[in-house]
């Protein structure tokens, strides 16, 4: 399914009037927004469904959006439709009659990733939309960030900051709130900082991949500074859902490298995927330290789906000054499901559903080299 088939074609012509009723009627993922309450301080207009419709209308009336090429309009249009898809899962009532949806942007990106992956939307387009969803609140929070330049540079590796600003403006205008003026002022600051970064030489001025990796890990570094490469060995960290071919890739590409494979460790220790995984992780880290102390390259072969889990592995490798090559693998949803069923020890569906709920595709700043091995449907 194409993106336009999933979300509908964005409106064309001088009016750019969105017609959302037919799309809403056939999309259960939009219908769940109806009735989801919001904090009246920020959203006096009503529930998430009401807000989403208003955001789409505000986007379609924005000359900046109207001036974009059609493929880019479609992506922003889709992002506006799904930007709050994490709220039904994360909204909680507070004792004073207000509501909290803390964390909904990151959770929303994961929900959207599942939706677009199962629909077969092209990888790069999907991930640009997910990045817009995950970071859609950043333009309102720039003044609160400890190191805003670093945050903007990292986001800029995944999407154009001007597109994020366009979505944020629609988000601010698509609500009724006494704080709307403050949101728009914060957005203005975000635009200024983003433009300053572009004037300084763009968002990717790093001399080489090692220098970029060190910049995002060391707050004292300048993005233009060339880092001395004192790496002692290379570690390939694999990432991907069960059934995408991680072990096959490692055997084909690096047949002579030792592998730390969590499935094999489970078999050795007699621990199933549904039991406590603490002993598995401890054993994996112990073996990794043996390789790292010997300055021996190896492959860490595991799903490593969440950014938090990958950070633990990468931190361990970096502590020994290993150069991390992060390889992400993906296949279409039907292929992943079939290949998982055909495995000698298939992962239960319930376990995969839990994994999907914390699925973060690696961003370019996570490793020294980050590669995307993404197969498309035949």
Q: Which terms summarize this structure?
A:
alpha/beta, Hypothetical protein af1432, Rossmann fold, 5-stranded parallel β-sheet, two-stranded antiparallel ribbon, 7 strands, 52% helix, globular
Structure in words:
The protein has 378 residues and is of the alpha/beta class. The chain has 2 domains: 197 residues, Hypothetical protein af1432; 142 residues, Rossmann fold (3-Layer(aba) Sandwich), CATH 3.40.50. It is 52% helix and 9% strand. It has a 5-stranded parallel β-sheet, sandwiched between helices. The chain has a two-stranded antiparallel sheet with strand order 1-2. A hairpin with a 5-residue loop joins strand 1 and strand 2. Helix 4 runs antiparallel to helix 6, helix 6 crosses helix 9 and helix 16 packs across helix 17. The longest helix is centred in the middle third of the chain and has 20 residues. The radius of gyration is 22 Å and the shape is globular.
Give the class from helix and strand content and strand pairing: alpha/beta
The amount of helix comes to: 40-55%
In CATH, the architecture of the largest domain is Orthogonal Bundle
Tally of individual domains: 2
Q: Based on DSSP secondary structure assignment, what is the total number of beta strands?
A: 7
Largest sheet: 5 strands, parallel
- Residue-averaged pLDDT: 92
Show unreliable segments.
none
At the third CATH level, what is the topology name of the largest domain? Hypothetical protein af1432
Principal-axis shape equals: globular
Reading the helices and strands in chain order gives HHHHHHHEEHHHHHHHEHEHHEHEHHE
Question: Order of strands across the widest beta sheet?
Answer: 4-5-3-6-7
Distance between the termini: 13 Å
**Helix count, DSSP H or I runs of 4 or more residues:** 20
CA gyration radius, whole angstroms: 22 Å
């Amino acid at each position: 399914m194409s993106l336009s088939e999933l979300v509908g074609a964005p409106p064309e012509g001088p009016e750019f009037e969105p017609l959302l009723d037919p799309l809403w009627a056939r999309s259960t993922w939009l219908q769940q927004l109806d009735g989801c309450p919001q904090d009246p301080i920020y959203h006096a207009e009503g529930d998430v469904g009401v807000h989403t419709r208003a955001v789409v209308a505000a986007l379609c009336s924005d000359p900046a959006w109207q001036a974009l090429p059609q493929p880019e309009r479609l992506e922003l249009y889709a992002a506006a439709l799904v930007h709050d898809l994490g709220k039904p899962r994360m909204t909680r009532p507070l004792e004073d009659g207000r509501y909290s949806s803390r964390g909904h942007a990151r959770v929303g990106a994961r929900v959207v990733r599942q939706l677009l992956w199962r629909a077969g939307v092209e990888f790069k387009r999907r991930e640009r939309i997910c990045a817009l969803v995950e970071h859609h609140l950043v333009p309102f929070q720039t003044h609160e960030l400890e190191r805003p330049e670093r945050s903007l540079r990292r986001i800029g590796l995944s999407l154009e900051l001007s597109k994020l600003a366009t979505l944020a403006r629609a988000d601010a205008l698509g609500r009724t709130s006494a704080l709307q003026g403050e949101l728009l002022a914060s957005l203005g600051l975000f635009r200024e900082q983003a433009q300053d970064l572009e004037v300084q030489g763009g968002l990717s001025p790093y001399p080489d991949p090692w220098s970029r990796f060190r910049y995002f890990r060391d707050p004292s570094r300048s993005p233009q500074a060339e880092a001395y490469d004192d790496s002692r060995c290379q570690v390939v960290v694999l990432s991907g859902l069960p059934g995408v071919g991680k072990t096959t890739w490692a055997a084909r590409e690096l047949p002579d490298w030792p592998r730390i494979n969590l499935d094999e460790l489970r078999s050795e220790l007699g621990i199933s995927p549904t039991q406590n995984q603490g002993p598995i992780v401890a054993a994996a880290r112990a073996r990794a330290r043996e390789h790292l102390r010997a300055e021996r390259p190896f492959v860490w072969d595991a799903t490593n789906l969440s950014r938090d889990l990958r950070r633990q592995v990468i931190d361990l490798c970096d502590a020994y000054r290993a150069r991390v090559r992060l390889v992400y693998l993906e296949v279409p949803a039907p292929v992943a499901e079939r290949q998982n069923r055909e495995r000698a020890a298939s992962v239960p569906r319930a376990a995969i559903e839990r994994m999907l709920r914390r699925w973060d595709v690696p961003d370019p700043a996570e490793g020294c080299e980050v590669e995307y091995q993404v197969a498309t449907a035949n």
